[in-house]
Design a protein that fits this description.
Bound molecules: zinc ion
Number of domains: 2
Strand content: 25-35%
Structural class: alpha+beta
CATH architecture of the largest domain: 3-Layer(aba) Sandwich
Oligomer: single chain
CATH class of the largest domain: Alpha Beta
Radius of gyration: 20 Å
């Protein structure tokens, strides 16, 4: 971790009104000696009050959040809010423009680069700016994801428990207000470089979530994210309205890597289960076919635990080590209820 971020913006993040502009990443190359890479950023503020920081395009091939946040920038009226909303619809700008998970500039995965490095390559520099200038300013951080090109998900809002009760309770309350059909508690080791890292550094509650995948735009995912972001503003008191939800969310968790299934060899993955299926330990979740060796029988892949199929690989051709499926299980923990 190194010093001050070199990204700069002409926006005044503390001024009232609506400002739509960019944060600029210095990028000096042969075709542009003094050039910058502009990354969209907006702030809408009206007086004192809570700050929501919401971003998408952390992974550039996850689209629902990018669409919803651009729409939010166009439509949010400062006169309709109390407090502040900071919106970054294409957080890893170069990756988002390329429609790719990682940046074409440095191969960087922004969601493995936090808290970032002011002297690092572009992706690590962006992470440093988000950590120091945006997460540090907010009362709630929302990072919108989807499965990207290689995975498909059942939709959910998520949080990672920090062990700090006050922060975890605020995250859980915000997750309930978001209005997704499932709340997932991720079991993740820290520090893992994800956007949870700056949230933890600044003791800010953070919501993640997956709202589609397969490298396409989910209509229902866009609707869910749009309502969820609005519900989050309502929950914080930024909008003077009540969150709108359809019933109670199912509280679930992703415990650890034992609830994942990986390809043991290369081949074409033919699933034997669907998203949303309840499976038991030993269930064959699919086969890896090798039509280049037609005499060889397909290789079955079993899952090691009981659970709900939350995520599936969205690309047929696999290499050894590709994630094929992972599960979620019901959680009953009064600490976060
Ligand atoms: Zn993602």
């Amino acid at each position: 971790m190194a010093g001050r971020s070199k990204l700069w913006t002409t926006l005044d993040l503390d001024a009232d009104g609506k400002q739509v502009g960019t944060v600029n990443l210095p990028h000096s190359v042969t075709r542009s000696a003094y050039g910058v890479i502009p990354i969209p950023l907006a702030v809408v503020k009206n007086g004192d009050g809570p700050t929501l920081f919401v971003m998408a395009g952390n992974h550039g091939d996850e689209y629902e959040g990018q669409i919803v946040l651009a729409d939010l920038i166009r439509t949010l009226d400062p006169g309709a809010i109390r407090g502040r909303v900071i919106v970054m619809p294409m957080a890893n700008g170069p990756a988002a423009r390329a429609g790719a998970r990682v940046s074409p500039l440095d191969g960087g995965n922004l969601n493995r680069a936090f808290p970032g490095d002011a002297d690092g390559s572009p992706t690590w520099q962006i992470a440093r700016y988000i950590t120091d200038a945006l997460v540090a300013r907010c009362d709630l951080f929302v990072d919108l994801h989807a499965g990207g090109s290689s995975l498909s998900y059942l939709p959910f809002v998520s949080l990672v428990l920090t062990g700090e009760d006050a922060v975890d309770r605020r995250a859980m309350a915000a997750a309930r207000a978001f209005g997704a059909p499932r709340i997932i508690v991720w079991g993740k080791a820290e520090p893992d470089g994800t956007s949870t890292t700056p949230a933890r550094l600044h003791r800010v509650p953070k919501l993640g979530g997956e709202y589609g995948g397969s490298g396409v735009v989910s209509r229902s995912g866009v609707a869910l994210v749009a309502r969820g972001v609005r519900n989050t503003m309502a929950h914080l008191g930024i909008l003077d309205e009540a969150p709108r939800r359809d019933g109670e969310p199912r509280l679930m968790e992703i415990k650890d890597r034992r609830y994942y299934a990986y390809a043991p060899c290369e081949g074409i993955f033919a699933p034997a289960v669907d998203l949303g299926d309840q499976v038991t330990a030993g269930t064959v979740i699919g086969h890896l076919h090798a039509p280049e060796y037609p005499a060889r029988p397909p290789v079955p892949v079993a899952i090691g635990h009981d659970g709900l199929v939350l995520c599936m690989r969205a690309i047929g051709r696999c290499e050894a080590g590709d994630c094929l499926v992972h599960l979620a299980t019901d959680r009953d923990d009064p600490i976060v209820r």
